Amino acid sequence: MTTYFTKDHEWIRVEGDTGVVGITPHAVDALGDIVFFESQPVGTSFSRGDAMAVVESVKAASDIYAPVSGEIIAFNEALTDAPETINAAPEGDGWMVKLRIADPAELGSLLDAAGYQATLG
Amino acid sequence: MSDAGPLLRTPLYDLHVASGGRMVPFAGYEMPVQFPPGIMAEHLHARSAAGLFDVSHMGQIILRPRSGNTADAALALERLVPVDVLGLGEGRQRYAFFTNEHGGILDDLMIANRGDHLLLVVNAACKAEDEAHLRASLSDSCEVEVLADRALLALQGPQAEAVLGRLDPKAAEMRFMDVADLVLAGIACVVSRSGYTGEDGFEISLPAVDVAVVAEALLADHRVLPIGLGARDSLRLEAGLCLYGADLDTGTTPVEAGLEWAMQKVRRTGGARAGGFPGADAILRQLEEGAARRRVGLRPEGRAPVRGGAALFAAVEGGAQIGVVTSGAFGPSIEGPVAMGYVETALSSPGSTVFAELRGKRVPVAVTPLPFVPNRYKR
Q1: B303 to chain A: which residues are within 8 Å by CB?
Q2: What is the residue-wise DSSP string for B289-351?
Q3: Which residue of A40, A54, A55, A58 to mutate against B (max B Cβ within 10 Å)?
Q4: Close Cβ partners of A82 (under 8 Å, ≥ 6 residues apart)
Q5: Which of A9, B147, B240, B279 could form a disulfide with B103 if both were Cys (CB 3.0 to 4.6 A apart)?
Q6: Residue B70 phi/psi, 5° resolution?
Q7: Which one GO biological process term can you cite for this protein (chain A) (predicted)?
Q8: Residue A11 is part of a domain; what is its CATH number?
């Protein structure tokens, strides 16, 4: 199991050909209190960089982008009623979407934890 | 705000940073949008205890009658606002707005009668234009003095009276919209019992050099937390209060905005001082006949906030746009999304359902009375 990061502050935890996607503590801190989460439906396919879910904080709406191309095979339905879980546990219970990864080679373009930390300055 | 110059700081900037405030540009100033508790917790704290807001970026302007008679300044100001200023008693304050020749709103403001002068509080983004407008229109009868060296605090919430009363017991004797001289932590302040959160509270005008002393004395009370612009916005939206630049602008009339209550009878058709302000023809006609669109409260179904700028439609599919959202957010006290906007008058009755365009879909939105949270002013 390996975790990769995007410059847009998503993380993807990869096991075999599936990946679980969420946002980083840095992103949660910048967004503030999250009050709404909505995923595209299970079965939707995405290219890398497409918006596949949206979160709204008290301040603004933010798209969650697909770190790699793939198809949504599940999303975190608990977040529909309790989006604040993303604030409380962004890397745990606040996970958002589970993807079937279309092309594992795309993972090579993502950052590792040290590389992501470096982008935060 | 068209000025792209360097951002200004209020005299409380250092205290905001020391308190963990997240600073953002707002109306030309670096202001705290939130403190470590976050917008949701700050909002709920102001509704349940007391919150301290720095509103020093707002403009404070004195109108001093050249004749020495404050009634002359009141009558002069009535040339710019559709409001009864002459009838405003000493030690009282009133909400008003500057209008343009089309009946649109140039800015909204507070006017206080301070005995020998009038004290105006105007929006930060409009203050330069307001000053020029006042000088151009009233210099014959009034000295216009911008109080650039004064700060402004707002203490808001059900515990505000108890907190301020510990510093000066006279605070408890004030009613909503009273203005009085109080001494807080040794500093002479001009205090009004008013605010913009829907809660009971006070606004405190004082010398900029002394504002940190008074702010720290208020924050030393365990019931008081510093509150940022984020919660200030959600509080005023839940209270159904207009934000200039969002819900009010030069293309919006007071009747469209539902501000008839601020235009007293004496300035209306048949009143002793009817008209005489910019746009009087259009505004007085709308007072008689109504306006084609109205400001309404909006409650989107579900949890998704509908933000300012969202288009409103009468039907879930098709049809022309019938309105627009002007303010929208998640209301922490309501525990759901709330918004305000303008709709065609035929659709403005509470109970109507309209549809807001949100990410390419139309979501049902109930038209509701304002405010969303009952006002708790101490009348």
Answers
A1: 35-36, 80, 83
A2: H--SEEEEEEEESSS----TT-EEESSSSSS-EEEEEEEEEEETTTTEEEEEEEEEGGG-STT
A3: A58
A4: none
A5: B279
A6: -65, -25
A7: glycine decarboxylation via glycine cleavage system
A8: 2.40.50.100
Altogether, the residues listed in chain A come to a count of 121
Chain B residues near any Cβ of chain A (below 8 Å): 33-34, 38-40, 230, 234, 303-305, 307, 329-330, 332, 337, 359
For residues B111 and B142, give the distance between their C-alpha atoms in angstroms, rounded to a whole number: 15
Query: A-chain residues within 8 Å CB-CB of B358?
Result: none
Which DSSP helix (H) or strand (E) runs through B362?
Answer: strand B361-368
Give me the half-sphere count of Cα atoms (radius 13 Å) on the Cβ side of residue B187.
22
Asked whether B284 and B290 are in contact (CB, 8 A), the reply is no
**A121 within domain boundaries:** no
The secondary structure of B123-170 as a DSSP string is -GGGHHHHHHHHHHHHTTTEEEEE-TTEEEEEEESTTHHHHHHHH-GG
The whole-angstrom separation of Cα B177 and Cα A7 is: 51
Q: Give me B52's structure tokens.
A: 């301290």
User: Is A58 part of a structural domain of the chain?
Assistant: yes
Per-residue tokens: B158: 């059900």
Name the residue range of residue A54's domain. Answer: 2-107
A116 within some domain: no
- Find which of B22, B23, B39 to mutate to test the A interface (most A CBs within 10 Å of its CB): B39
Q: Is B339 exposed, middle or buried (0-12, 13-18, 19+ CB in 10 A)?
A: buried
φ/ψ (deg, to 5) at A98? -110, 125
Please tell me the total count of domains within chain A.
1
Nearest to A32 by CA among B42, B335, B49, B25: B42
- Which ipTM score applies to this complex? 0.89
The answer to whether position A75 is within a domain reads yes
Per-position pLDDT tens, chain B of length 379: 445 678 999 999 999 999 999 999 999 999 999 999 999 999 999 999 999 999 999 999 999 999 999 999 999 999 999 999 999 999 999 999 999 999 999 999 999 999 999 999 999 999 999 999 999 999 999 999 999 999 999 999 999 999 999 999 999 999 999 999 999 999 999 999 999 999 999 999 999 999 999 999 999 999 999 999 999 999 999 999 999 999 999 999 999 999 999 999 999 999 999 999 999 999 999 999 999 999 999 999 999 999 999 999 999 999 999 999 999 999 999 999 999 999 999 999 999 999 999 999 999 999 999 999 999 999 8
Looking at the complex, report in whole angstroms how far the Cα of residue A2 sits from the nearest Cα belonging to chain B.
32
- Min Cα distance A35 → chain B (Å) is 7
DSSP code for B244: B
Among the residues of B59-107, which ranges form H helices? 70-77
